[in-house]
Design a protein that fits this description.
Distance between the termini: 50 Å
Largest sheet: 6 strands, mixed
Shape: globular
Number of strands: 6
Order of helices and strands: HHHHHHHHHHHHHHHHHEEHHEEEHE
Strand content: 5-15%
Strand order of the largest sheet: 2-1-3-5-4-6
Number of domains: 2
Number of helices: 20
């Protein structure tokens, strides 16, 4: 019900347009358009790897092929989140043995609601990103392993294998769990299932890496390397930088609320698994898999950015907690305590849950309007630092200065700070007519660039509330000003456009 309410409120805030709470899903959709054209990138004739997922862009392409357009992400995210909560609540129901008590209806409802909150099941789908599918893959893998290893129900093997394979291809973080699952299946004696999972994953990754190499691209996506220093150092074979990156990430994790919980839970699971008495082999294996997943995120994972990066690890942690509860007898008090613990643990997700509609409004005011300007008012070659809606449905060249959609820009920005000289060089090389960028990200721009406008919006999930419009090719001055004047007329509430004479910065 809350999902539907959030959708209705978001549509009201965006004048009836379906706009996600982040700009990032439009990168997936833009890449999906390219895939349907037989290419792989953002711009026609130029290979790029802007997606944080191997599988998700192809799911988006399938949705676009069927004619669902920008609704496509919701077709995967909402069912994934709902199914994830249902599976975890089902495991909790079985684990807590609710059927033994007559007064457990409301405690279970509260527990289920707490599970939904702690898995960010309302806000996460409206990001439009692959994280909801990632969470579902983790839930399927661990629920299947739990049934197989702890409950001795081999009917869970198929689910475990499917979840493991999806984990490996939906997010690169999923490789840690996938590896742990393969080892676990082998240790438990299900070697055929372990080998099958390993072969599918290795073959798929080999095909992906070979394809990227044939395109002249690194093994890892530009988007992943841009957002993760660890990934960039790994791709560049920088061993020292990689070690330092791991140490820094551990430090950051231990000062993050979720990272601390992951570390403490992983430690507790290992203590119980290896020092606890009267534990069956299967139970120990399950606890170890969960601990390994949490530890991997502490070492190399990210947090935040509208509460999405760590949710899969939170789901894994819930399974670890449920497994630990198996140690003590089922009681009504234990259930109530578990619900309270989950509510406290999941409280950081109250904010994104309550602000999803405001985030969608933010993206509508800013990136959606930038896309309108680039596609409907001034369709020319453009440079941006926030790739997404500007690229989706745009046949004109879009240069991503941040580097998600341009490996050339990523390497330049990694090797050097953006100087006016570098900006001038790369924009001239690609015949860029104008730029829409955050001044906070580019303190110095070429003197020849003219600040002609500034879009001012709210700031919820956008990195800045101010987007500066720079004219790069002066002979386009009259045309761009006419476009800006027409564009301003239809700006939505919450968005304002200031225009300036052609001043050099």
């Amino acid at each position: 019900m809350l999902v539907l309410v959030t959708l209705v409120v978001s549509l009201k805030e965006t004048q009836g347009h379906l706009v996600y709470s982040l700009d990032d899903p439009y990168i997936h959709l833009a890449l999906a358009e390219s895939i349907l054209e037989g290419e792989y990138g953002i711009n026609s004739g130029e290979y790029a790897s802007p997606s944080s997922s191997i599988l998700y862009p192809f799911l988006m392409a399938f949705g676009l092929f069927l004619g669902f357009g920008s609704v496509t992400p919701l077709l995967f995210t909402i069912p994934s989140s709902l199914l994830s909560v249902w599976v975890v609540a089902g495991v909790a129901n079985r684990q807590m043995e609710f059927e033994k008590f007559d007064n457990m209806r409301w405690p279970f409802i509260v527990l289920a609601a707490a599970i939904a909150l702690s898995m960010n099941a309302v806000a996460l789908p409206f990001t439009g990103m692959e994280h909801s599918v990632h969470v579902l893959a983790v839930v399927l893998a661990l629920s299947g392993l739990y049934r197989t290893s702890v409950l001795k129900d081999t009917s869970g093997l198929g689910v475990a294998v499917v979840g493991t394979i999806i984990c490996a291809f939906i997010r690169f973080e999923g490789l840690a769990l996938a590896l742990a699952m393969i080892i676990a299946l082998g240790v438990l004696g299900y070697r055929r299932h372990a080998v099958l999972s390993a072969l599918v994953i290795v073959a798929g990754l080999a095909m992906y890496f070979a394809t990227m190499k044939s395109y002249g691209l690194p093994a890892l996506p530009s988007s992943v390397m841009t957002k993760s220093i660890i990934a960039a150092d790994a791709a560049d074979a920088d061993a020292f930088g990689l070690i330092v990156g791991f140490l820094v990430n551990i430090y950051v994790s231990l000062f993050n609320r979720w990272g601390t919980l992951f570390a403490l839970t992983a430690t507790a699971l290992c203590v119980v698994a290896f020092l606890g008495r009267d534990f069956a082999k299967g139970h120990r294996v399950f606890l170890t898999v969960v601990a390994a997943t949490l530890s991997a995120h502490v070492v190399a994972g990210q947090y935040g950015w509208f509460a999405r990066y760590e949710v899969y690890a939170v789901a894994a942690m819930l399974f670890g907690w449920l497994a630990l509860l198996k140690i003590t007898p089922a009681t009504s008090l234990k259930t109530q305590a578990a619900a309270l613990l989950l509510l406290v643990a999941g409280s950081p997700y109250l904010h994104p849950t309550l602000t999803t509609s405001a985030a969608s409004a933010n993206i509508f005011q800013q990136q959606y309007q930038m896309g309108r300007f680039a596609k409907d008012f001034f369709p020319a070659r453009v440079a941006v630092n926030d790739l997404g809606y500007v690229a989706y449905g745009n046949s004109n060249y879009v240069l991503d200065l941040w580097g998600l959609g341009s490996e050339e820009a990523r390497r330049l920005s990694r090797s050097n700070q953006w100087t006016p000289e570098l900006l001038d060089e790369i924009t001239k090389r690609h015949d860029i007519r104008y730029a829409m960028i955050y001044d906070a990200w580019f303190r110095d721009v070429p003197a020849e660039w003219c600040l002609v406008g500034r879009l001012v919006t709210s700031k919820v999930t956008s990195a800045s509330g101010n987007v500066s419009f720079y004219l790069i090719q002066r002979d386009q001055d009259v045309a761009m000003r006419a476009a800006l004047n027409a564009f301003i007329v239809d700006l939505p509430e919450g968005a304002k456009m200031a225009t300036f004479e052609c001043e050099t910065s």
